[in-house]
Each structure stands twice: as structure tokens, then as C-alpha cells.
Specification:
- It is a single chain.
- This protein is mainly alpha-helical.
- The protein has helices at 2-9, 13-33, 36-57, 66-85, 95-113, 116-133, 136-144, 146-149, 154-175, 177-193, 197-209, 213-216, 227-238, 246-252, 256-277, 303-345, 353-360, 362-367, 375-387, 390-400, 407-417, 423-436, 441-469.
- Helix 7 packs across helix 9, helix 9 (154-175) runs antiparallel to helix 14 and helix 9 packs antiparallel against helix 16 (303-345).
- The longest helix is centred in the C-terminal third of the chain and has 43 residues, at 303-345.
- The two termini are 37 Å apart.
- Residues 156-253 form the Nucleoside transporter/FeoB GTPase Gate domain.
Length: 470
């Protein structure tokens, strides 16, 4: 109260100006007398100390013993340094960008998991998003009838909300709201992480627009992007889901709050992993520039026209998802039928592709902090997500394995599955970027598998951080 009364009559600059000058002098002194390697090492150790002290300072809970938190922390190191070991240009890795991105991701998770304000805020956003997208139900009821909508089929649960969300996004884009929000967020990421404008715009747009639509925001810039930028754009798409499919997962019984948190955490995480794997070695045309270029040939006349164009895009995306699920599930069941037939001769009961590859993901499931008794199931779900898609994996999580996983395992699995990192999405992303830059289709295709792995690593890193803070 005394300080408030004093500063009502005395300007705060009396204190803030000397304080700012002191910080600048100290930082310049440290910068002049220490090498980049020493400064980066000290920064990394400081962040490590902050994370370790925070994680182990919280009291133990039955579902979150300190040993499990330690395993998740170890998993974070494995994912980060494993990616560094596989880096294309290890000498060019900008560790300040990587460390800052991981710190941002950790602080966001801390805000959600261990702050009542953060928990309530994201729960409110989740409830708002669910309630808003549920309005699509009334349109679907009018078209298909109440009985059909209440039949709880996948198509009528997911696709109306997807089409409605696509229309909403197109309307907001016409009004300029999307561009304004994304530009402000991109400026923050440029300043904090030191990445290019094109990368920042796509990274912050990915949780809202999705893996294919995000690249359309920088359509004129795609032909001149560096290889590192293309890799980052692909990784951002693989590392998150889009708002258009959010309601579909929530309708299956997946935690909306966990999905939203994972989507936001994926923004800095995808940057960290991608810049470890494929650091920048070229000069970007969009360095320090967060302007969003306009669409070429955009002829939207008014809001109704924008809603119609959004609905058209939503229908295309819905049909694409529908076709992918039908073809992938058909191929998956055909392969599983052959493996089961083969397993009968080898006395292996129910031999399937998910069973075989699921065991390969058991170490990953352990590193993200899943309980020991659930490792095989979590590994199978992660394998299913890679081979087919996250829709099928979440369906199995909430249906086939309902009640079989502990609350801890279910939460970290929700984070680990929250991304478009699957082989079906590779074709879609390569197709979109290849259409925008036909001369660079070969480069994009060569970077796609690396970006797919980095997108998966990003979701696993988010899961391990969630495992530390549950």
C-alpha cells in the first residue's frame, strides 16, 4: 500500500531506468568476457536446474511418484540429445533457440498443471470450444435427422463440426482477425526464439488451421523457403492437431483440456526439435518479418461468401479424412489378417502389425512416464497412430482399452498421440507444399520422413513434460 501511494506521486522510471541500465551493463560485461559456448552451457544448466528443482519440489502423489517424474525427465534428455545426435548440421545448432523453446514449453505446462488459474483457464477454453463446435450438431440434425445424429457414428460426430470450424476460420480470415492474431504471436516467437517470420507464422497457425492449411498462409513465400524452413513447416504440421478435428476427439471421450494444452505446447516444441535435426545454414528471406502475405486470386466478396468457401474446404477435408480412414483401415486389417494366419502356424496368438511394432514403442512409452503395467498397450497405441492415424488410436484409447490404463498412463498417452504424425499425413503435406512450389517437390519429399519423426518426437517430448508435472 505504501509503495502504491508513493508511486502515485513519483514516476516509476526513477527505479526502472537504473535497474534496466544495470542489467544491460551486467549482460554486456558477461557477453564480452565469456565465450558463446560458456554462455550457452550456463544457460542450459540454469534451465535444467529450474526444471529439476520445480519437478522434484512438488509432494509425491499416488499417481505421480518422484521416480516416475525422474523417468520422464530422463526421457526429455533422451529425446533432445537423440535428435542432436541425428542432426544434419550439428555445428550449426542454435542452442539458445532450442533451450528457450523447451523452457517455454515447460513453463506453459507448469502453468496448466500446477496453477489453478492456468487449469481453470484452459478448462474454460476447452468447454467454450466444445460448446461452440457443438452448434454444428443442430445443422447436422436438420440435414440428417435426430435419429441419425444420435446414432453416435464417427462421420456424423466429427465431420459436421469440422465443416463448421472451417467456415468459422474462413470468416475470421475474411475479417482479418486470424491474420492479426497470428502476426502478434509470430512477432513474439521471432523475438524470443530467433526464427524466421515464415516459420513463426506457420508454427503458431498449426494448432488452429492444421497441417495443410497452415502453409497456405505463406503461399507466395514457399518457393523461396530454405530447407530448414521447409523442415520446420512440415514438423509443425506433424506435431499438432487442428481445431477442426478437436470436437471429434472430445466426442470420443478424450480430455479437451489435455488436447488444447498439447496443441499450444507443440508450438515451441516443434521449433526445438526441428532446429536440432535440421538447423538453419542459409539466409532466410523472411528473417525478422512477420507479415502475412495475401492469398493470390482471393475473390471473397462478403462474410456469407467466406462461410461458403470455408464449408467447401471443410467438405474437402472431411472427404479426404474419410477416404484415408477407409483405405488405411482396409489395408491394416488385410495385413493383420495375413499376420494372424501366419501366427497360427507359428503358435503366436493374434499376431498383428500393431502387436509387432507396439513392442518397439515400449521403450518410448517408458520414457514418457507411462506406468509399467501399461507399457505394451501404450506402445500399441503409439504404433497404431504412426501406421494409421490419431483418430483410430484415440478411438482405441477411449473404446478398446477403456478402463485398462491408469489415469497417469492415459494422460501421457493423450499427449503422445496428439499430432498428425502418420504416414497418411505425409502424402497430404507433400501434396500441398508441392502444389505451392512445384519446382521443390523433390526437396520437400526428401525432408518429409525426417519431419514426420521430428513431429512424433515433439508429441513425445510434450508427453514427458506432462509426466513430470502430473
Amino acid at each position: 500500500m505504501t509503495c502504491y501511494i508513493v508511486f502515485c506521486h513519483i514516476p516509476t522510471t526513477i527505479i526502472t531506468t537504473p535497474w534496466r541500465r544495470g542489467i544491460n551493463v551486467a549482460s554486456n560485461l558477461i557477453h564480452q568476457r565469456t565465450s558463446y559456448c560458456i554462455r550457452t552451457s550456463l544457460y542450459g544448466l540454469t534451465v535444467l536446474g529450474i526444471i529439476a528443482a520445480t519437478v522434484f519440489s512438488f509432494p509425491e502423489k499416488e499417481e505421480s511418484p518422484r521416480l516416475r517424474r525422474l523417468i520422464s525427465l530422463f526421457g526429455l534428455f533422451v529425446f533432445v540429445f537423440g535428435t542432436f545426435a541425428a542432426s544434419v548440421h550439428r555445428k550449426h545448432v542454435q542452442w539458445n533457440t532450442v533451450i528457450t523453446a523447451i523452457l517455454m514449453q515447460f513453463l506453459l505446462a507448469l502453468f496448466v498443471f500446477r496453477s489453478s488459474v492456468g487449469h481453470d483457464l484452459f478448462r474454460w477454453i476447452s468447454n467454450f470450444a466444445e460448446g461452440y463446435l457443438h452448434n454444428a450438431w443442430y445443422g447436422a440434425e436438420f440435414v440428417f435427422g435426430t435419429a441419425a445424429v444420435n446414432a453416435n457414428t464417427f462421420a456424423l460426430n466429427v465431420f459436421p463440426a469440422l465443416i463448421f470450424f472451417a467456415s468459422t476460420v474462413q470468416m475470421l480470415y475474411y475479417l482479418g482477425t486470424i491474420q492479426w492474431v497470428l502476426k502478434k504471436l509470430a512477432v513474439v516467437f521471432i523475438a524470443i526464439l530467433g526464427i524466421s517470420g515464415a516459420e513463426s507464422i506457420v508454427a503458431v497457425a498449426s494448432p488452429f488451421l492444421g497441417a495443410c492449411e497452415n502453409a497456405l498462409l505463406i503461399e507466395p513465400l514457399v518457393p523461396t523457403l530454405t530447407k530448414s524452413e521447409i523442415h520446420q513447416i512440415l514438423t509443425s504440421g506433424f506435431a499438432t492437431i487442428s481445431g477442426s478435428v478437436l470436437y471429434g476427439y472430445i466426442a470420443m471421450g478424450v480430455s479437451g483440456q489435455a488436447l488444447l494444452t498439447s496443441c499450444i505446447m507443440s508450438i515451441p516444441c516443434s521449433v526445438a526439435i526441428s532446429k536440432l535435426r535440421y538447423p538453419e545454414t542459409e539466409e532466410s528471406d523472411t528473417k525478422h518479418n512477420a507479415n502475412i502475405p495475401g492469398h493470390q486470386g482471393d475473390d471473397t466478396a462478403n462474410i456469407l461468401h467466406a462461410l461458403g468457401k470455408g464449408a467447401e474446404m471443410g467438405v474437402k477435408i472431411s472427404l479426404l479424412i474419410l477416404a484415408n480412414i477407409i483405405s488405411i483401415l482396409g489395408a491394416l486389417y488385410a495385413i493383420n489378417s495375413f499376420l494372424t494366419w501366419l501366427g497360427n502356424f507359428l503358435t503366436i496368438h493374434e499376431l498383428t502389425l500393431e502387436l509387432v511394432t507396439g513392442y518397439l514403442f515400449v521403450p518410448i512409452a517408458w520414457l514418457i512416464g507411462a506406468d509399467d503395467k501399461d507399457l505394451v498397450i501404450v506402445g500399441r497405441l503409439m504404433a497404431t497412430k504412426i501406421w494409421s492415424n490419431e483418430f483410430i488410436a484415440y478411438k482405441q484409447l477411449t473404446d478398446t482399452y477403456k478402463g485398462q490404463l491408469s489415469s497417469r498412463s492415459q494422460l501421457v498417452t493423450t499427449y503422445a498421440l496428439c499430432g498428425f504424425a502418420n504416414f497418411g499425413s505425409v502424402g497430404m503435406q507433400v501434396g500441398v507444399l508441392g502444389t505451392l512450389a512445384p519446382s521443390r517437390t523433390g526437396e520437400i519429399s526428401r525432408l518429409a520422413i525426417s519431419a514426420l519423426i521430428c513431429g512424433s518426437l515433439s508429441t513425445w517430448l510434450s508427453a514427458s513434460i506432462a509426466g513430470m508435472l502430473i
